[in-house]
Design brief:
Elements lengths: L1 E3 L6 H15 L10 E9 L2 E8 L1 E2 L5 E2 L1 H11 L7 E6 L7 H9 L8 E5 L5 E5 H4 L17
Parallel strand pairs: 6-7
Antiparallel strand pairs: 1-8, 2-3, 2-6, 4-5, 7-8
């Protein structure tokens, strides 16, 4: 993990942070009051693509997590490879265990994919998915290449 200032982020990482902050504003969290925003960057032949998502809660206590929302949007657009992910939340945007598994699915077995964690005061910490999820089980373990689907 390393702590950084916004101005020290790469341009694409700054875009992710801004998108995740904006997505957090749109979160629907009337029950937990814990709003989360996320953004994902993927690369295509046209260059980088960015996708955002927020958490959405319902009265039956089912929640779509922001990270999954952003990744689902990426997949719906035809992309299958996460290059970087940012998550913004009150206490810092560290993805939960379930989201770490979901993120790993689309990291292409690359433990160096950066996960940018931002709290609402703007403090930024960058982890790798390998630091957050050191012993992953993923598509490769089942002989699957997500890019083929």
């Amino acid at each position: 993990m390393r702590k950084v200032n916004f101005k020290n982020l790469k341009h694409e990482e700054q875009i992710l942070v801004e998108m995740a902050k904006k997505a957090r504003e749109n979160a629907y969290a009337p029950y937990s009051k814990y709003k989360v925003g996320a953004a994902v960057m993927s690369i295509t032949k046209r260059g980088p693509n960015f996708y955002s998502g927020c958490n959405v809660e319902t009265c039956i206590y089912q929640t779509t997590h922001a990270e999954r929302n952003a990744i689902d949007t990426m997949v719906a657009d035809g992309c299958r490879q996460i290059i970087a992910l940012c998550c913004v939340a009150k206490g810092g945007g560290i993805p939960c265990a379930e989201c770490r598994q979901f993120i790993w699915e689309f990291c292409g077995d690359n433990p160096e994919v950066p996960i940018i964690s931002v709290d609402i005061k703007g403090n930024i910490e960058i982890y790798t998915i390998g630091e957050l999820y050191p012993k992953p089980f993923g598509p490769k373990d089942l002989g699957v290449n997500p890019e083929k689907y």
